[in-house]
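Researcher: Structure prediction, please.
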Amino acid sequence: MSTSSTPTPRGPAGPPPGPDLRPRVQVTRHMHFSAAHRLFRPDWSDEENDRVFGDCANPQWHGHNYEIEVTVDGEIDPETGYVMDLKLLKDAIQGEVIDDVDHRNLNEQVSWLAGVNPTTENLVVAIWNRLAPALPDSVELRRIVLRETPRNHVEYTGPRAGQGDAP
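Model: Predicted structure follows.
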């Protein structure tokens, strides 16, 4: 039986862990943008587009106030205490995604969506493909949640091993 009443410090409050024991933590940045789009396939008739996409196939477009959450994973840097400076994550999301899509027509004004039917599912994959290469090597992109409405969202956790994902 131990008579010591002082517990051994563990984790961030204790001594720095060894190089193989640094904690991995996920951090998330939440942002928003507004955009218009139309869901349709040009190779389908108007009737078929209306049947499949309903009001979203309206030739006069419609818009959403999207909410996006980007989660990265990494080890806590022993010098800064950060996984990643959240301002740098914000700047990457802003520069690679928001600046291109905010107050834009996704079908006509976003070059990296050319030829893509801009469903929320296709949009989240395209955002991943755009954002992942812009992040520092010290973190891994783990998840993007894209909310099209307060009731509808998609979540993407990246391509499966050995497979690339379009769009």
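Model: Residues 86-101 form the longest helix (16 residues).
Researcher: Thanks, that helps.
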